[in-house]
Structures are given as structure tokens and as C-alpha cells.
Specification:
Elements (H helix, E strand, L loop, with lengths): L2 E6 L4 H4 L13 H16 L6 E4 L3 H14 L6 E3 L16 H8 L1 H9 L36 H22 L3 E5 L1 H12 L3 H5 L9 E5 L5 E6 L1
Parallel strand pairs: 1-4, 2-3, 2-4
Antiparallel strand pairs: 1-5, 5-6
Helix pairs in contact: 2-3, 4-5, 6-7
Length: 228
């Protein structure tokens, strides 16, 4: 039976400073690098040998994968970087301190933006320098694909494309597969695998740097899951 290992990137510099990150490309903190190495060691100790990797376009996920792969001694395994696995785009909230934002807009409003399934936060303007259309890594995306802000529902919809078109195929062809991504994109994969309701997925907390292993049958239906 193939295994799908989900790994949320280690603590980032903006996790540490309590800022909305989204598609902003920040690196890991020292703690995040240590978490990534420990995740690799746990995967290796469990006797799991991933044959294919997926990650997002964002540095904090890419570096987590690289560090974990080094700890596993499996740096040579092929990897597919896919923007569909990026974190949820938090729009105009990106870069703002979460506590300061709560003071400005109220705890209730910030909670709705962060924890609702289908509510979209304030969008970036098309001319805002933070807009992904100014980032060269997204130059091949269409205007319809480039978000100005996303709800969790919108994030999961794009993650579904990656699951159906790439990850499921890798599991069938290669076997054990490691996906290193972000809290909200991994929520999307968990929602599909576990058939979670919108209410359940909003409340799902995925810790940084902790490998989450799904054991799948031949139809890629989970028969069990656990954290290492």
C-alpha cells in the first residue's frame, strides 16, 4: 500500500513575528530549519522511503523539503514544484501583524477572515507591488489563475487540481510520496482524503514540521493515518 506523507513547512520568519504570510516569500527561521531536519529524521526512522516529492513555489516549503531530504539521505528523489500547493493568498492582509490587525479591525473580523471557509479577505489592488503578477515565478499563469485574495474554499479548489492531476498519479506510479506544503494547502489534501466537512476542515490544525502519514489502499482511499 502506498503512503502519502504530508509535511507542513517548519516555522518561518513571519510565523515567528506573527505576520500574515500567504504568498509572500519568506524563509525559515532557525527553529524552522531544525524542525525540517527532525522531520526528515523521523521519516527515515519510521522506515519510510519516499520515491517522489511535491512542494510549492515558496521558499519556506522548498527549503523544508531540501533539509528533510538531506536528513533522509534521499536528495536525489525527483521533485515537482507546483504553485497549486502554495499557501492561501491572504490578499491585503499579507505582511500585517496579526495582533495589530485585530486591534484595527476587531478580533471577530480577523477571526472570520482567518477561520471561515468561504470568506475572502480584503483583496490586493492590481497595482500593489505585493500582487503575484509582479513575481517572475508566476509569469506563465493567466490573469484568472493569479489571486488577489483567497478564501479557504478557493485554496482547496486549486489544491484539488494538483491532487487529481499529479499527486494521485505519483502515488500509483512511484509509491510512497512526500508533499511539503503549507497549513491551508495541506488542509485541502486532508479534506479530500478524509472527506471532511467545511466546518471540520476549518478547525483542523496541522503542526509545523510533523510528518503526517496516510496509508492508502489501491484506490488511494485512506485506511489509516498517524503523525510520526
Amino acid at each position: 500500500m502506498p503512503k502519502l506523507i504530508l509535511l507542513r513547512h517548519g516555522q518561518s520568519e513571519w510565523n515567528l513575528s506573527n505576520r500574515f504570510t500567504g504568498w509572500t516569500d519568506v524563509d525559515l527561521s532557525d527553529k524552522g530549519r531544525a524542525e525540517a531536519a527532525e522531520a526528515g529524521r523521523r521519516i527515515k526512522a519510521a522506515g519510510i522511503e519516499p520515491e517522489f516529492y511535491f512542494t510549492s513555489y515558496l521558499t519556506r516549503a522548498i527549503h523544508t523539503l531540501q533539509i528533510a531530504a538531506d536528513a533522509m539521505g534521499r536528495q536525489w528523489v525527483p521533485v515537482d514544484k507546483d504553485w497549486h500547493l502554495n499557501e492561501r493568498h491572504y490578499g491585503a492582509l499579507q505582511g500585517l501583524n496579526k495582533a495589530d490587525t485585530a486591534v484595527k479591525y476587531g478580533d471577530g473580523q480577523v477571526h472570520i477572515w482567518r477561520r471561515s471557509y468561504d470568506v475572502v479577505p480584503p483583496a490586493l489592488g492590481a497595482d500593489d507591488e505585493r500582487h503575484p503578477r509582479f513575481d517572475p515565478r508566476y509569469k506563465t499563469l493567466t490573469a484568472d489563475e493569479l489571486p488577489s485574495a483567497e478564501s479557504l474554499e478557493m485554496t482547496i479548489a486549486r489544491v484539488r487540481c494538483c491532487w487529481e492531476e499529479k499527486i494521485a498519479e505519483a502515488l500509483r506510479h512511484y509509491g510512497d510520496t512526500l508533499v511539503v506544503a503549507h497549513g491551508n494547502s495541506l488542509r485541502g489534501l486532508a479534506m479530500m482524503l478524509e472527506k471532511l466537512s467545511p466546518e471540520a476542515v476549518v478547525g483542523l490544525e496541522i503542526p509545523t514540521g510533523s510528518p503526517w502519514v496516510f496509508e492508502l489502499d489501491d484506490r488511494l482511499t485512506p485506511v489509516g493515518n498517524h503523525y510520526l
